[in-house]
Amino acid sequence: MGTWTQEKLSRIAADRLPGFLGIQVVKVDAGHVRLELPIHDRLLAPNGYLHAGTVVSLADTAAGYASLSLLDESESFTTIELSASFLGTAREGLLVAETIPRHAGRTTHVWDVEVTTPGKPRPIALFRCTQLVLRPQGAGRTP
């Protein structure tokens, strides 16, 4: 299993998109990730509501971290498919993304991610993501 901790993911993401957006790693267990993102003006669309790209970035980050949580340090992943269904929006507060593992195979991982706002009765968005597992050349192959 992976050695990716909450602290390690927070550190490496600080100068990348998740850090730029303000995504906070709250929980990392094997296949289960919880991220939070305080809503601020820069995450809103020109109409004053949450930008869809903000929600997708949060959910995709959660799915990616969930994949990493199952991989060794020498392995990585890339997103090969994603979809999002938006059920609501927000202008302020906190976004929470939590992963639900659907398939954790040797070559692919499939995640559902629910994005919520505490205190609201329904999710902001439902997200599904498929990750392709990347291994060093020759790893896991038999001669």
Describe this structure in words.
- The protein starts with 5 loop residues before the first helix and ends in a 9-residue tail after the last strand.
- The chain contains three helices and six strands.
- The protein has helices at residues 6-13, 17-21, 52-68; strands at residues 24-29, 32-38, 76-86, 94-104, 108-116, 125-134.
- It has a single domain (6-134), classed as Hotdog Thioesterase (Thiol Ester Dehydrase, Chain A).
- It is α+β, with helices and mostly antiparallel strands and 143 residues long.
Low-confidence stretches: none
CATH topology: Thiol Ester Dehydrase, Chain A
CATH superfamily: Hotdog Thioesterase
Report the helical percentage.
Answer: 10-25%
Topology readout:
Layout lengths: L5 H8 L3 H5 L2 E6 L2 E7 L13 H17 L7 E11 L7 E11 L3 E9 L8 E10 L9
TL;DR?
With 143 residues, the protein is α+β, with helices and mostly antiparallel strands.
Question: Which key features would you list for this structure?
Answer:
3 helices, alpha+beta, 6 strands, six-stranded antiparallel beta sheet, 38% strand, Thiol Ester Dehydrase, Chain A
